[in-house]
Design goal:
Leucine-rich repeat, LRR (right-handed beta-alpha superhelix), ten-stranded mixed beta sheet, 619 residues, binds 2-acetamido-2-deoxy-beta-D-glucopyranose, alpha/beta, 11 helices
Amino acid sequence: MMKPSVAEVLHRGRMLWIILLSTIALGWTTPIPLIEDSEEIDEPCFDPCYCEVKESLFHIHCDSKGFTNISQITEFWSRPFKLYLQRNSMRKLYTNSFLHLNNAVSINLGNNALQDIQMGAFNGLKILKRLYLHENKLDVFRNDTFLGLESLEYLQADYNVIKRIESGAFRNLSKLRVLILNDNLIPMLPTNLFKAVSLTHLDLRGNRLKVLFYRGMLDHIGRSLMELQLEENPWNCTCDIVQLKSWLERIPYTALVGDITCETPFHFHGKDLREIRKTELCPLLSDSEVEASLGIPHLSSSKENAWPTKPSSMLSSVHFTASSVEYKSSNKQPKPTKQPRTPRPPSTSQALYPGPNQPPVAPYQTRPPIPIICPTGCTCNLHINDLGLTVNCKERGFNNISELLPRPLNAKKLYLSSNLIQKIYRSDFWNFSSLDLLHLGNNRISYVQDGAFINLPNLKSLFLNGNDIERLTPGMFRGLQSLHYLYFEFNVIREIQPAAFSLMPNLKLLFLNNNLLRTLPTDAFAGTSLARLNLRKNYFLYLPVAGVLEHLNAIVQIDLNENPWDCTCDLVPFKQWIETISSVSVVGEVLCGSPENLTHRDVRSVELEALCPELLRAA
Ligand SMILES: *[C@@H]1O[C@H](CO)[C@@H](O)[C@H](O)[C@H]1NC(C)=O
Ligand SMILES: *[C@@H]1O[C@H](CO)[C@@H](O)[C@H](O)[C@H]1NC(C)=O
Ligand SMILES: *[C@@H]1O[C@H](CO)[C@@H](O)[C@H](O)[C@H]1NC(C)=O
Ligand SMILES: *[C@@H]1O[C@H](CO)[C@@H](O)[C@H](O)[C@H]1NC(C)=O
Ligand SMILES: *[C@@H]1O[C@H](CO)[C@@H](O)[C@H](O)[C@H]1NC(C)=O
Ligand SMILES: *[C@@H]1O[C@H](CO)[C@@H](O)[C@H](O)[C@H]1NC(C)=O
Ligand SMILES: *[C@@H]1O[C@H](CO)[C@@H](O)[C@H](O)[C@H]1NC(C)=O
């Protein structure tokens, strides 16, 4: 399972919109089904595909048909069409492959084995609006990759292995609005990448970004942005990141930006960038000096960068952020909940992606369409795309989740970090079934009742970092069938029971760093599809391959640093395993902690004979 694409979210938003309107109108909650008439087909189909006309567009379904080359699709269609080619076996897109498919408005190449897009592959696709390349093996976007796609509005390429994007890759995609690049390996974005585009949605979650600069990057994104997702990158919270922080403080308060959690330096690990003062990030400079040196224009003097949507009460804090009091008032409580929303400038209001022949999704409201129910002591934000609510109850001294009253409707994200919660009960989340993110980090949780999260079937991210949890059991995770991201760093975990994670088939990321683990049980990772695993700073002497590491067949990144690896014969299978997975997958060093004559040597650089002289003697 992937993260929902923006399109899916928008689509769901649309459904929900209908549900809510019907709820309001009829006092009744059954969704009204969207009825789609099947119209008459006046074009040939193409064997073995299946075709239909929907919403006046021709749809050609060629999913899972074993195609290996676009040239195998020999038909020509004279009316606009959508072509579905998911789950085929294409490895390469050749120059001019699509010339005869020039009436395509949408092409889905998700879940193939694409490694290479030749220059000019998309030539001729002049009316193509949507291109899906997700779940392939693409590793680079070159300047010439997307030539010819002059109408492209939507590009989705999540779950590839993109490591490099050339600065001109999008220079001719002047209509591009939605760019989905989450779960790749992008270490940096080149200057001026977005110079020619006006993105409204940009998803960069789960990459390797450490910093984003203002000039040539954020200044370009900021023009039209509605939603930016930056979670799960290894943000390096030092002087350079002040630019990103300053920028975040001045983008419209309705723009949605995910959490930016610092990975480095160590003393900021796990902290939200927005909660660290600039003078802490960059101690040598005062705030105004930092800003001046970065060349970020002053809002008052730069009309293009002034955001008309921001209430003036918030703008006032932008220039002087030195005092923590002001900082709090501008950031901890981002906005009064029921404040009317101001319409956006026209350039962004077309942003809610208008699919062909689809009515606009929830239009911008001058006030929320439904009353917002928000628990006392928290602040709530309505997510205009899907009418979900973000409920922010950070640092409010809550002892118990049962104190959260009244219960909000359609809460999507619940932030309960930095409270005083000690125990989690099954009844705590009865009324939160629409949650996709639950943040319980930095509490005092030592007890999690079996089945505590059983009523959260849609939960994708669960943060339990910074608590007092000692043991992980399978029962804790019952019902979390959608969970992708699980954070347990900085607890006191000593024990993981067998098959603890196996009830979470979609688990992609697991952070267990900074705990007290010495071993992992057999089948620890069986039944998951982990791509990222952090085991840093525990007490592992060795890890078995059979029954444990061998189940990590989808691993993209693993952190094994700061464990006292015992470089003796037992470690041989482990050494061989880390050598077989790609070198980019292993983060940093894997140093021996013993025996004495091998300490501080990287396990990979220790010769087999030194690791296990017995092997040699036996031979
Ligand atoms: C795929 O089709 C192209 C023409 O578009 C051709 O040049 C190429 O050789 C074909 N490749 C394979 C592997 O069949
Ligand atoms: C890509 O295009 C950009 C801008 O158009 C140019 O500066 C850069 O050198 C190009 N890169 C390559 C590898 O051709
Ligand atoms: C980019 O678009 C411009 C104008 O539409 C066109 O003149 C130019 O040839 C295009 N460049 C490439 C490399 O396609
Ligand atoms: C973070 O930034 C600092 C200062 O630029 C640099 O010295 C350090 O190496 C960076 N850390 C990482 C992990 O990139
Ligand atoms: C939290 O709630 C539980 C059950 O509702 C109750 O037994 C407990 O005393 C409460 N704890 C605190 C600290 O309020
Ligand atoms: C939560 O939901 C249950 C049933 O689903 C209902 O009985 C209860 O009143 C709700 N509690 C709150 C606090 O809304
Ligand atoms: C390390 O020390 C052990 C004895 O403790 C010895 O058998 C081994 O040969 C030494 N290895 C190296 C590489 O010096």
